[in-house]
Amino acid sequence: MKPIFLGRVARFTGRSKFIASFEVEMMMSTLTNTVETQAGVTLPIYMDNHATSPMDPRVLEAMIPFFIEKFGNAASRNHSFGWEAEQAVENAREQIAKLIGATAKEIIFTSGATESNNLAIKGIAEMYKERGNHIITQVTEHKAVLDTCKRLEKHGYRVTYLPVKADGLIDIEDLRRAMDDKTILVSIMFANNEIGVIQPVAEIGKLCHEKGVIFHTDAVQAVGKIPVDVQAMNIDVLSLTAHKIYGPKGVGALYVRRRNPRVQISAQIDGGGHERGMRSGTLNVPSIVGLGKACEIARLEMGTEAARLTAMRDRLRAKLESALDYVEVNGNMEHHLPGNLNMSFVYVEGESLLMGINDVAVSSGSACTSATLEPSYVLKALGLGDDVAHSSIRFGLGRYNTEAEVDYVADKVIGVVSKLRELSPLYEMVKEGIDLSKIEWAAH
Amino acid sequence: MAYSDKVIDHYNNPRNVGQMDKSSDEVGTGLVGAPECGDVMRLQIRVNPETQVIEEAKFKTFGCGSAIASSSLATEWVKGKTVAEALEIKNTDIVKELALPPVKIHCSVLAEDAIRAAIGDWKKKNNVAETAEVAVAAH
Predict the structure, then answer these.
(1) Nearest by CB to A436, which of B33, B35, B109?
(2) What is d(CA A200, CA A163) in angstroms, rounded to the nearest whole number?
(3) Taking CB atoms and an 8 Å cutoff, what residues of chain A touch B37?
(4) DSSP string, A283-327
(5) Known catalytic residue at A368
(6) Which residues of A touch B35 (CB under 8 A)?
(7) B30 contact residues in A (CB cutoff 8 A)
């Protein structure tokens, strides 16, 4: 029989079971403000899975007992409430480790990938500052990496930002040339969040290990979507997050290699010495359970899911390319995430396109959609003109998208692009054979 | 971002979309903005040579919804006005009418520029002095 904690557990237990079934039912059946169309799709359609993904109901189900019924602190060593929480956390650690070819002890829990990236880069920079002060990254990283590196530059570190080729991939020879005897860390993302290209991670890892440099990768978009193996790929430190793989927001993890070589990281948050001293703070047990479950589902279903998403992505691309002219695919399509498609609909501005397809949730690289009023720095790094970057749309297909939705989105985009091109003076001029680059634009 | 109903209406039903014969003496054409800035407007007016009344206006715009709405509204407003009256249209009037947020004010500025550029083109074609400076420059 379970011991009683403050005598209130019985009531909590009953309630949490009720909440569990109720919530999961809600999640699976009704959403407010949705409309069913004749094409058999429910509007609005969510196709922005690189931003975040809906939770898998199986993940929610796994989490629910850990809010009210099994609420213990995983660091409580003296009673079963703590043991129960700790066991759940260790189980999640195993599930995550298994997905990326690591061991459970190498997984550190964080609040998400931004924290993981900060902890990895700042923690390594601080720990290895006696060895050197040089860090190598590349220009299309997420801001969580770029801004962290920029901060380190203010503290005396030297950072090399490698360029990317027109297809979005780095040149491994550029990396080799950038390394010197002061290089302590290489941080190159696994897969890009905007254009979905997959960097040559195994080659980078091999080179780093040859040179004795620590290799960190922000693998937020890759983990759970494509095979990731920290051993085979010589990855030393890896950031991941739950909410991109159908888990909850606000929880992530950092893989930190323990052997060959053993990587050490200076804590950035001081406190009770949780997570082997690398990240203090009471563990967010329900979310950690969710992250673990999300990883387990991803590991078991990745093969079929990736094939399905790739087929849907290719269908979307083929439909758009066959119906519209002046369409460009951004990024290398060979080394590419299954669910990503980034396309520019030239001579149509991205925000106006989003406005026309307002029952479909996607993202644009247009300046008008960003807080900074600058077009996507990732697309600009590929050498795309600002005008092409302004015209880009990122489609992010995920677990719950259907072929009917792909068809609906394709038709909708074709219709709106065609309409906006009727309105576009640029499209008209190009059709009349005018070279837009020869015009003296009155920039403002 | 939430758009005002008027912006959405102009976006869904843009007024006076099209092109007029650029070479006609009665037609003034203004092309403002730049592709790399994400907005280009072309606004054209056809002016009655007797009355100087703008009898027809057409536009095409590459840009966001607010840019499309600003130029669509500009064509509506210049129609029926004399050239002198049309020059009175201020970007702030457009901001007010369309309830544009601060981040979209440049769309209204561009629309005002487009009106001025179209009128300037027409004046040049018809040897109407725009300002003293233009008259001097023409010598």
Answers:
(1) B35
(2) 14
(3) 386, 443-444
(4) --HHHHHHHHHHHHHHHHHHHHHHHHHHHHHHHHHHHHHHH-SSE
(5) yes
(6) 385-387, 390, 426, 436, 441
(7) none
At residue A387's C-alpha, the angle toward residues A385 and A388, to 5°, is 70
Under 8 Å CB-to-CB from A153, ≥6 apart: which residues?
A: A159
User: Which are the contacts of A271, defined by CB distance < 8 A and separation ≥ 6?
Assistant: A280, A281
Which residue type is seen at A83? W
pLDDT of residue A317: 98
Task: Give me the residue spans of the domains in chain B.
Answer: 5-125
The rounded distance, in Å, linking the Cα atoms of A105 and A217 is 19
β-pairing, A360-361 vs A45-46, is parallel
Nearest CA in chain B to A353: B64
| Candidate from B11, B36, B61 with C-beta closest to A355 | B11
Which CATH fold topology does B5-125 show? Sufe protein. Chain: A (3.90.1010)
Give me the residues paired with residue A327 across strands: A345
- Mind listing the pLDDT tens digit for each residue in A344-373? 999 999 999 999 999 999 998 776 666 666
Instruction: Residue count of chain A, please give it.
Output: 444
Residue ranges, chain B, pLDDT below 70 = 1, 130-139
